[in-house]
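[09:14] KT: can someone run the structure on this one? pasting the chain below
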Amino acid sequence: MPAQAQSTATPTPPVREVSSTVLALDPSRGSGVYPVYASSDLQAGSAADRLALVVVHGRLRNASDYFITGTQLAGTAGAKAAGGGSTATVVVAPQFLNQVDVTAHNLTDRYLRWSRDWEAGMPAQGPSPASSYDVLDDLVDKLSSTAAFPELGRIVFIGHGGGAQMLARYAAVTRLRSSRTVSFIIANSGTYLYLTATRPVAAAVPCADVNTWKYGLRDPPRYVGALDEIAKNFAARDITLLLGGGDVKRSGVLDQSCAADAQGRNRLERGQYFLEALTAGNLAPLLRHAIVRGVGHNEREMLFSREARDAIFAAPR
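[09:31] RB: done, structure tokens below
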């Protein structure tokens, strides 16, 4: 990751809890296991589940909290199978660990772990150099299994803050091939992956990283395939971009590197500029977007807003 991007990332303490449920990464993607919270057994599957919500945590890696958010979201939709009983929505919250988490919880070397750069799809530190995006692909493959989830028709990725940053890039570069409809809900991302070299804000000082991954397409991680395919694939994605109307602070963990500030001065401004760039270039014709009025950088207020719930449970296009 670019040095300037690294300098803005505030170290976080070890995560409070690591899920006791782990899934093995498909060997075609690398070796290792990753923790996950899930309302259904992803190996055995469920004939009742028709919708999957994959909720991606932020930089604190507190996947258990995001799992609770996901189950509550499913409940607000009244997502019950015909005749009552089992829920028709499977909720999944993967957990991306840093090395500090593995050390603090005395986990074995088989656990995939990163150096605070899982948001950007970078290779793991061990036990294999699998990308964090490989983990998301692996989840899609498991949920797309007709043997395990025969009735499942749609997979919805949901992210706020750090999770939104991960999904904003994953949606552009993923190589997934699923028989299910895959949608992305991206809320209050701190920065975005620009597909062109043009930026909305002129840099006050020379900025070498403005077009370097994770801000642009120069020097991407090994997961990223042919660059000339990215714009076409991104245009076909079902994406909803949600912006908090009050998310305007330049404090806390907001990336304030020159590459980030070339996208705008705060999350709201950066999101609005990114929307303008996508519209001007006709880069995302299926994109939905909404501003959630009066809400700042607050995960629950954003994800439980009418705008978010409408997008999560909407019919795909």
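[09:33] KT: thanks! The domain at 3-312 is CATH 3.40.50.1820 (Rossmann fold).
[09:34] RB: yep, looked fine to me
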